[in-house]
Amino acid sequence: MTTRQWLLSASPASQMQARLGRAYVGWQSFRQNRLAVIGLAIILLLVLVAALADILAPYDPLASDLTQRLRAPGDGFLLGSDGLGRDILSRIIHGSRYTLMIVALVAITAAPVGLIVGTAAGFLGGWVDTVLMRITDIFLAFPKLILALAFVSALGPGIENAILAIALTSWPPYARVARAETLTVRGADYMAAARLQGISRTRQVLGHIAPMCIPSLIVRVTLDMAGIILTAAGLGFLGLGAQPPLPEWGAMIANGRQFLLDQWWVATMPGIAIFIVSLGFNLFGDGLRDVLDPKRGQ
Amino acid sequence: MPMLEIEYLNVRFSDTPVLKDVGLAVPRNASFGLVGESGSGKSTVLRTVCGLVDDWDGTISVADRKLGAKRDLAFYRTTQMVFQDPYGSLHPRHTIHRILSEPVKVHRLGDTEARVAAALAQVGLDATFRFRYPHQLSGGQRQRVAIARALILEPQLVLLDEPTSALDVSIQAEILNLLQDLQQRLGLTYVVVSHDLAIVAHMCETVAIMNRGRVVETVATGALGDTASLSPYSRQLLVASKGYDRAAVDRFVDFE
Question: SS in 3 state form for chain B?
Answer without folding.
Answer: CCCEEEEEEEEEECCEEEEEEEEEEECCCCEEEEEECCCCCHHHHHHHHCCCCCCEEEEEEECCEECCCCCCHHHHHHEEEECCCCCCCCCCCCCHHHHHHHHHHHCCCCCHHHHHHHHHHHCCCCHHHCCCCHHHCCHHHHHHHHHHHHHCCCCCEEEEECCCCCCCHHHHHHHHHHHHHHHHHHCCEEEEEECCHHHHHHHCCEEEEEECCEEEEEEEHHHHHCHHHCCHHHHHHHHHHCCCCHHHHHCCCCCC
